[in-house]
Amino acid sequence: MREYKSQSKEIILTTTIDTPLGQMFAAASKKGIIMLCFFTPFNIEARIDILKKSFDTDIIPSECEYFDMLRTQLEEYFEGQRKTFELPMQLVGSTFQIQVWKELLNIPYGKTMNFTSLASKIEGLKSKKALESPLAQNMLNIIVPCHRIQKDDGSLNVYAGGEEKKEFLLKLESTNK
C-alpha cells in the first residue's frame, strides 16, 4: 500500500474484513477503530458521510495495526474464545448516541436487554422511541452490541445487519457463555 501524508487533515483508514457473516467495512482514526459495519453500499456511504462531517479528513483504503487487532479479536469472538473486545476505539456520534452506545457496552456477553431496561439507564430520556436512532446508527456493529437489545415483547429489534445476522450473533453468544 502507498504511504499517505497530509499536513492539514486527519486521515481515516479503511479496509474490509471477512467474517462468518460476510464482509464488513472498517475504519480507523489515529485514536482507534471508529467504524465496523456490515457491507451494504447505502449503509457504508451514509456512515462515510458521517465521518466526513465529523472530521476534517481524508478517507483512504489502507492497513494499520488497529485493523490487525480487530481481525484477531473478531476471529476469536466468532470462535467463541472472546467475550469482550479490547480495542482502542473512538465513538463518533452525538452526545446522546454515545451515551446509549456506552450503555450497550455494559450488556454482558450472552445476555439481552429490552428497550425499557435500556431506557431506565439513560439519564434524561423522554421516550423509549428515542433509542431507535442510536441503535440503527451504531457505527461499531458487533463491538458495540446493539444485537443484544430486544423489543419489550421479546421480539428482535431492527438491526443494521439484518435479522439473520442478529440471530446468528445471539445464538453464537448463548452457545459459548
Descriptive report:
The chain has helices at residues 41-54, 65-78, 95-104, 115-121, 132-136, 163-175; strands spanning 10-19, 22-29, 32-38, 57-61, 113-114, 149-150. The chain folds into 2 domains: 10-78, Double Stranded RNA Binding Domain (2-Layer Sandwich), CATH 3.30.160.70; 95-175, Arc Repressor Mutant, subunit A. It is built from 6 helices and 6 strands; from the N terminus they run βββαβααβααβα. The chain is globular. The termini are far apart. It is of the alpha/beta class. The chain has a 4-stranded mixed β-sheet with strand order 3-2-1-4. Strands 5-6 form a two-stranded parallel ribbon.
Q: How many domain modules? A: 2
> Can you give the helix content as a percent range?
25-40%
Q: CATH class of the largest domain, anyone?
A: Mainly Alpha
The name of the CATH superfamily of the largest domain reads Winged helix-like DNA-binding domain superfamily/Winged helix DNA-binding domain
Which secondary-structure class do the elements indicate? alpha/beta
CATH topology of the largest domain: Arc Repressor Mutant, subunit A
| First-to-last CA distance | 39 Å
What is the multimeric organization of the chains shown?
Answer: single chain
Approximate strand percentage = 15-25%
> What is the makeup of the main sheet?
4 strands, mixed
Q: What's the overall average pLDDT, rounded? A: 89
* CATH 2nd-level architecture of the largest domain: Orthogonal Bundle
